[in-house]
Write a structure and sequence with these properties.
The chain is mainly α. The chain contains 18 helices and three strands.
Length: 343
């Protein structure tokens, strides 16, 4: 825990004071005033885009949201009950096979490394893969969902935002005038920002390690997805919801917590390896939850979650261990209220 592995110009975290910044911007500001594509540009290139830069950036990414029809065929080869993360990991790995010009093993190992010295052609190749990955990720994620539903895949729509298009790919059932609900679209976009970067976490460390071998970027992202699949990392919000479902109603919280204090049960959604104060992302998400529930109706598990959070605030056992609600505690409630299956 005391070994520094990188020096970052991208992320700043102060765990004791509950601070998270992307390139100097507090996460709370970005959630309120930015959108995911703008924040992605900030993380990758170091500055917020100008109006002209943003327009070109958005257009390029949305241009890359189509996938080869053979990749749809690959999805159809999965069992209907395959886990979406398993499908998504495979899909990213498959993308690399459809872009041989993006593979240093085929094109020479300096395909990307020359970019570090400012080589224009290498930077162009690098940027194209960034655009492709950002553009195709929602299409692949939506395909894994549609596969489990037994529904045909949607093609990306024109005229929708990045997140709006993702919701269209998930939800549209051949309706002519489909439009995602603006509150849900905005909430999901904010969740994308909140999860866009978090220092050298498990999946980021995996991406850095695998990328250091100079393999193609699609294989690198597939490895990151595999790391994210684990219940101790990306699967944590799913685990938090399953825990709340098991607890059931608010009156069952004290009995459950007694088992936690006796080490008979594991508490999910509380505490963090870095934050020894309130997780700033959970504060932003709590506000989003209220907006979403006005649209979807109150998630029945919310009262149980709030009672659990109240117990944590008042419990000496929890306070002495700095166990506060983290980002996974509320995010799962929002996803469930929006209709996402737990997987």
């Amino acid at each position: 825990m005391n070994t520094a592995v990188v020096q970052s110009k991208i992320t700043y975290i102060n765990g004791l004071e509950g601070i998270l910044r992307y390139r100097g911007f507090p996460i709370e500001q970005l959630v309120k005033k930015s959108n995911f594509l703008e924040s992605a540009f900030l993380l990758i290139y170091g500055d917020l885009p100008t109006g002209t830069q943003y327009s070109a950036w958005q257009d390029e990414i949305m241009h890359h949201n189509y996938v080869h029809s053979d990749i749809e065929g690959m999805f159809k080869s999965f069992r209907y009950d395959s886990h979406p993360m398993s499908m998504l990991t495979s899909a990213f790995a498959t993308l690399g096979a459809f872009a041989p010009e993006a593979n240093p093993s085929l094109q020479g190992q300096k395909l990307y490394t020359n970019a570090a010295s400012g080589d224009i052609e290498a930077l162009k190749v690098l940027d194209k893969q960034i655009l492709r990955i950002l553009g195709k990720a929602p299409t692949l994620a939506a395909a894994s969902y549609r596969m489990r539903q037994g529904r045909p895949f949607n093609r990306p729509a024109q005229g929708l935002s990045y997140t709006g298009n993702f919701l269209y790919l998930l939800d549209s059932l051949s309706g002519r005038e489909y439009r995602p609900h603006p509150v849900l679209e905005r909430a999901l976009d904010a969740l994308f920002i909140i999860h866009a970067d978090h220092e050298v976490n498990c999946s980021t460390a995996t991406v850095l390690q695998v990328g250091s071998s100079l393999v193609d970027p699609y294989s690198v992202v597939a490895a990151g997805c595999a790391a994210l699949y684990g219940p101790s990392h990306g699967g944590a919000s799913e685990s938090a919801i399953r825990m709340l479902m098991e607890i059931g109603s608010p009156e069952n919280v004290p009995a459950f917590m007694k088992k936690v204090e006796k080490r008979e049960r594991v508490l999910v959604g509380f505490g963090h390896r870095v934050y020894k104060n309130v997780d700033p992302r959970s504060t932003a998400i709590r506000e989003l939850a209220d907006e979403v529930f006005k649209v979807t109706g109150r998630n029945q598990l919310l009262d149980t979650a709030l009672e659990l959070a109240k117990y944590a605030r008042e419990s000496e056992f929890m306070r002495s261990r700095n166990l506060y609600p983290n980002v996974d505690f509320y995010s799962g409630l929002i996803y469930q209220a929006m209709g996402f299956p737990l997987e």
